[in-house]
Write a structure and sequence with these properties.
- Strands 1, 2, 3, 4, 5, 6, 7 and 8 form an eight-stranded antiparallel beta sheet that branches.
- The longest helix is centred in the N-terminal third of the chain and has 12 residues.
- β2 and β3 form a beta hairpin.
- The protein has one domain.
- By secondary structure, it is of the alpha+beta class.
Length: 136
């Protein structure tokens, strides 16, 4: 799975999902908004009841994820989310700036560094594995 072209990335996303025993269903779609930019959006529903909401904006010329948001919901409650909104004045987040994860308690304001997230490589493999570990 890579960020080289729309075709490579779309095939990689759907190959990643094929044969995943813990994924019950998904609405994940990868589509282009112009000749160089693609969007990945949708939800993955796991047999455990976990739902992973995915949004990515990918620039295939620069081979970068420009924006992302990943949110995990279980039992109707947000468990955590990752985003790349910069928080340059939060010293605790500088080691992985701008990548961070919102976690309880006070999920909106409690953020931790997210070294697993990247703009230069796909994040979905890690995220799916993270949810699968929870879903066991």
């Amino acid at each position: 799975m890579n960020l080289n072209t729309y075709g490579d990335y779309a095939r990689g996303v759907f190959f990643l999902l094929s044969g995943r025993a813990r994924v019950e269903s998904h609405t994940l779609a990868v589509y282009t908004v112009n000749q160089t930019v693609g969007i990945t959006r949708g939800e993955l529903v796991f047999h455990s009841g976990h739902v992973l909401r995915v949004f990515e904006q990918v620039d295939f010329v620069a081979r970068l994820i420009r924006k992302y948001s990943y949110e995990l919901i279980y039992g109707g409650e947000t468990q955590w989310w990752y985003d790349s909104m910069p928080h340059p004045n939060v010293p605790e987040l500088q080691s992985t700036h701008p990548h961070h994860k919102h976690v309880p308690p006070d999920i909106k304001h409690h953020r931790i560094p997210a070294p697993e997230m990247s703009f230069t490589r796909p994040n979905l493999p890690f995220l799916i594995e993270e949810v699968e570990r929870l879903a066991r």
